[in-house]
Specification:
The complex is a heterodimer of chains A (about 700) and B (about 190).
Chain A lengths: L1 H22 L9 H32 L4 H36 L3 H38 L2 H15 L3 E6 L4 E6 L12 H8 L4 E6 L5 E9 L9 E8 L2 H73 L13 H43 L3 E5 L5 E4 L1 H7 L20 H15 L5 E9 L2 E11 L8 E7 L1 H41 L5 H32 L7 E3 L1 H12 L4 E6 L6 E3 L1 H18 L7 E9 L2 E8 L27 H11 L3 E6 L5 E8 L4 H6 L1
Parallel strand pairs in A: 12-14
Antiparallel strand pairs in A: 1-2, 1-5, 3-4, 4-5, 6-7, 6-10, 8-9, 9-10, 11-13, 14-15, 15-17, 16-17
Helix pairs in contact in A: 1-2, 1-7, 2-3, 2-7, 3-7, 4-5, 4-7, 7-8, 11-12, 13-14, 14-15
Chain B lengths: L2 H15 L1 H7 L4 E10 L3 E10 L3 H8 L4 E11 L7 E15 L4 E6 L2 E5 L2 H9 L4 E5 L8 E10 L6 H9 L1 H4 L6 E6 L1
Antiparallel strand pairs in B: 1-2, 2-7, 3-4, 3-8, 4-5, 5-6, 8-9
Helix pairs in contact in B: 1-2, 1-5
Classes of the chains: A alpha+beta (about 700), B alpha+beta (about 190).
Chain lengths: ~700, ~190
């Protein structure tokens, strides 16, 4: 760009110099003026086009949104205006001045003076011509008086008497007869033209002023010399007389001055044009260099700004790479350095933030891991009792999805009137009652996965005015049941022990009474004794059985796990009942094996069948339905009867000892079943069948392979 | 820039742009009245004259002392049957027409020889005369060939004073005098 400016400045000054030289009308550049003018105008238009192009480039950059383009444009305009205004003023003044000064060269008085001088010169020359003609006429007259022979001889004398320079005498055909000259050159002057001779033969004298090569002016006069003699032809006299040299010189000077003036007058328009073009070129050159320098300078100014803008955008994107700092020590350089410092600090801060964020994420993940591995359900709540977090255990305990808990107010848990809603309302009430204190409550909750005993503990997380809360739910159903089972086992064991001990003496004593006394009594009394003794022995045996059952419940033998095909086992047991009632059996084929103690599992099936059988005792068409199926990684078998079913109030405690509806039996059947199933990691569930009867389903985990069996 | 000089400037630009067109489109006020190729013993002579009519502007310039330089140009070539014609020679000579206001004489200078004329018509006649120009040398000619002699006369604007050249460029029709190329054929 700078080179372009330098080049155009050089070119422009050369062109201006050439144009001015051309205006001087020197021989230089002759014949190439057209080329020069065309070239100059092309340069002017080229420079103007370059200015327009720069403007166009700027406008396009602004449209595209190149950073710094507006600054460039502003500088461009400012510098342009700064150049344009004075440039136009100087240009206008110059053009005006030029026109005025060229016009001032021309003056009416001057012109008149020159014309007057010319007229004066002409009349002076005419006078000389008339004088010469007069002398020549006198000579012609004298010659005509002489005889033709003497004419040539007298020629020199006549010339000297008349004071003329050259005298020539021709005959009528133009042949030279005589010549007399005072000139030193001795050259023969040019003879008159044919036309002149012809005119003179017609008796018309001819005279003319002629300029010679040395700057002098000569008067040529050609006259007829009439001869009196009829035999002779006429002669023709040519007289050449120089105009006085001073006069010739002066008149010629006047003429040349007038000619120069007139030429100048003619060419003033061209001069104005030439100077106008030169001035226009100078103006466009000045404007172009100003605009281009503005362009270049503003580009230079904007370049570090553009770098900074790029850096800012990079920072916005998160790229903290350093901006190449310009080494200039000015404010822009300082700005760049400050920017770099800021970027570095930002990068450091960002790194620190990232690190702490990572730590936070790790801590969160850690907490999450802890919370999800905890078996207790943990629910955190805002001060307005909106749930923030609920861990998977909480969702499992409440038997709902986490999504149904998190983000909702506590009161909005579950549907209207649902068990969960009642529980949540209870919790909310507790939190409201103890806003700044911990509390605990044991709650019974019927979930879709069965009834649960929950220990709920509420704790405010801080001691502030509006603390967040944490609700910890512990499923204590298992614990309570285990405690109850343990208590029952202990009771049964003790009872068996305490009751069993006196039974044998009672039986022995009764038998001994009968043996000792039967002989001594009357027949009637003996019969009574025998009957009473039999009753005592029988009841003692029954009591022994009862106590054995208790003992069995209290001390179930430890399971010996084997690989068992459930279908085979069920079929074996059902074989015993085939005759006694109507059985509907649907066993799924190809059931996977389960790991179980065959004796215990058989007892489970027997107990359940017995229950079903007893339940259908009073039914007109007793029907028991047995089926097995695979449920995912578990195997389930169900025994369903069409009896009266379980009463609702008993359902919670079905598996506890002595929870029975039957008049007969120990009330331990289901309790034993439950205990065995629990030992096999199975699940037992009791529900009402569609026909009103009871359905008991037991599901056991599938034995995956032999390895599992060995481990178990 | 005052309006008048701006207009002149614009006219100058326009004139430059139209220069090429104007060269051919200008009114041809130089006309070839007659031209004959006359062989003599040694040469073929071109005889005849151009009728030159000066525009008012040119006549005015002449009487104010501007010298007008005309150029007469001759190109000769030989026709060939199966190829482009064979260019032979080209000559040109300049004819200067000037006016001496003091003596009220028109001067015509051709090849160093000056003739003096009382009237403009005489001077123009003298300037347009071809003066038996030797254009072909018989020694160089082939028998039974056609020779083309092309003839051209114009006012040489570049010989005018430079400021006037600018005017001539700006208002070319008034300053352009050009006969265009004319052709005569000589059969040998």
């Amino acid at each position: 760009m700078i080179y372009l400016v330098a080049f155009s400045l050089l070119l422009g000054s050369t062109l201006i110099g050439l144009l001015v030289a051309a205006a001087d009308n020197t021989a230089f550049f002759t014949g190439h003026l057209t080329l020069l003018l065309v070239f100059t105008l092309a340069t002017v238009f080229g420079l103007a086009a370059l200015i327009i192009y720069q403007g166009f480039v700027l406008v396009r950059r602004i449209r595209v949104g190149v950073f710094g383009a507006k600054l460039t444009a502003r500088l461009f305009l400012i510098v342009g205006l700064m150049a344009l205004v004075p440039g136009m003023v100087v240009y206008g003044v110059s053009v005006q001045f030029l026109v005025r000064s060229i016009e001032s060269w021309f003056d009416v008085r001057m012109e008149r003076a020159l014309e007057g001088g010319l007229a004066l010169g002409r009349s002076a020359l005419d006078y000389v011509r008339r004088e010469a003609t007069h002398s020549a006429e006198g000579m012609a007259r004298q010659l005509s008086d002489l005889s033709p022979v003497l004419q040539v001889a007298q020629l020199n004398q006549l010339r000297e008497s008349m004071g003329v320079q050259d005298v020539l005498l021709y005959d009528d055909s133009g042949k030279l007869l005589g010549f007399s000259s005072s000139g030193r050159s001795g050259l023969l002057p040019k003879p008159p033209d044919r036309g002149v001779l012809w005119q003179v033969r017609m008796q018309q004298p001819w005279s003319r002023l002629e300029a010679d090569d040395s700057g002098g002016i000569n008067v040529h006069v050609v006259l007829p010399v009439n001869v009196i003699s009829l035999t002779e032809h006429m002669r023709i006299l040519q007289v050449i007389q120089p105009v006085p040299s001073q006069l010739a010189q002066d008149t010629q000077q006047v003429e040349s001055a007038r000619q120069g003036y007139q030429e100048l007058l003619l060419s003033r328009l061209g001069l104005k044009r030439l100077y106008g073009i030169a001035l226009t070129l100078a103006l466009t050159l000045a404007l172009f260099s100003a605009f281009t320098l503005a362009f270049v300078l503003s580009e230079r100014l904007a370049a570090p700004l553009r770098v900074l803008a790029r850096g800012t955008r990079a920072v916005a994107r998160g790229d903290f790479s350093q901006v190449t700092s310009s080494h200039s020590g000015d404010e822009l350089g300082q700005l760049t350095q400050s920017f770099n410092r800021m970027t570095r600090q930002l990068a450091d801060a960002r790194a620190a933030a990232n690190e702490s964020h990572d730590q936070l994420v790790m801590a969160n993940a850690y907490l999450e891991g802890v919370l999800s591995s905890v078996t207790a359900g943990v629910v955190t709540l805002n001060a307005d009792l909106t749930v923030r977090l609920a861990n998977p255990a909480a969702a499992a305990i409440l038997a709902v999805d986490r999504e149904e808990l998190e983000g909702r107010p506590l009161e909005a848990w579950g549907g209207a009137g649902a068990e969960l809603a009642r529980f949540a309302a209870d919790m909310a009430r507790q939190f409201r009652d103890h806003p700044r204190a911990s509390w605990r409550e044991q709650v019974e909750l019927r979930t879709s996965a069965g009834p649960r005993s929950l220990l709920a503990r509420g704790t405010p997380l801080s001691s502030g005015e509006q603390p967040d809360y944490v609700l910890v739910l512990d499923d204590v159903s298992q614990l309570i049941r285990a405690q109850r089972d343990a208590a029952w086992g202990e009771a049964a064991r003790r009872m068996a022990h305490e009751i069993k001990n006196p039974l044998t003496p009672i039986q022995l004593s009764a038998e001994r009474l009968e043996a000792k006394l039967s002989d001594k009594l009357e027949d009637a009394d003996r019969a009574t004794l025998a009957k009473a003794t039999a009753t005592i022995v029988g009841q003692v045996a029954a009591m022994k059985g009862l106590v054995d059952a208790f003992a069995q419940y209290a001390r179930l033998p430890s399971a010996r796990i084997e690989r068992i095909d459930l279908n085979v086992l069920i079929e074996e047991v059902l074989h015993l009942y085939e005759t006694s009632l109507r059985l509907k059996v649907s066993l799924a084929p190809e059931l996977p094996p389960v790991a179980a103690d065959p004796a215990l599992l058989r007892q489970v099936v027997v107990n359940l069948m017995k229950n079903a059988l007893e339940a259908t005792h009073n039914v007109s068409e007793p029907c028991v339905c047995v089926r097995s199926r695979r449920l995912g990684d578990r195997v389930e078998f169900c025994i369903e009867d069409n009896g009266p079913g379980f009463p609702v109030e008993l359902q919670e405690r079905l598996f506890e000892p002595y929870a029975t509806t039957k008049t007969k039996g120990t009330g331990l059947g289901l309790a034993v079943v439950k205990k065995i199933v629990d030992e096999h990691h199975g699940v037992i569930s009791v529900e009402s069948a569609e026909n009103g009867g009871a359905r008991v389903c037991v599901s056991l985990p599938v034995l995956e392979d032999r390895e599992d069996m060995k481990n178990a | 820039m005052p309006a008048s000089s701006r207009r002149e400037f614009l006219i100058a630009c326009l004139g430059l742009a139209l220069l090429a067109l104007a060269r051919t489109a200008s009114a041809e006020t130089i006309q070839l009245v007659n031209a004959d190729l006359v062989p003599n013993a040694e040469f073929v002579l071109l005889e005849g004259y151009f009728d030159i009519q000066l525009s008012q502007t040119l006549e005015n310039a002449l009487t104010k002392g501007v010298n007008l330089t005309f150029v007469q140009e001759v190109d000769t070539s030989r026709d060939r049957d199966w190829w482009f014609s064979d260019t032979m020679d080209s000559f040109n000579r300049s004819v200067r027409l000037s006016y001496n206001a003091l003596l009220r004489q028109y001067l015509v200078t051709v090849a160093g020889a000056t003739s003096v004329h009382e009237t403009l018509a005489d001077a123009l006649r003298a300037a347009g005369d071809l003066r038996a120009w030797q254009v072909l040398n018989l020694k160089n000619l082939h028998r039974k060939s056609n020779y083309r002699v092309q003839l051209h006369m114009y006012l040489d604007v570049t010989q005018l004073p430079k400021p006037i050249q600018v005017n001539a460029l700006a208002s070319s029709p008034r300053w352009q005098l050009d006969s265009g190329w004319l052709e005569r054929i000589f059969k040998y």
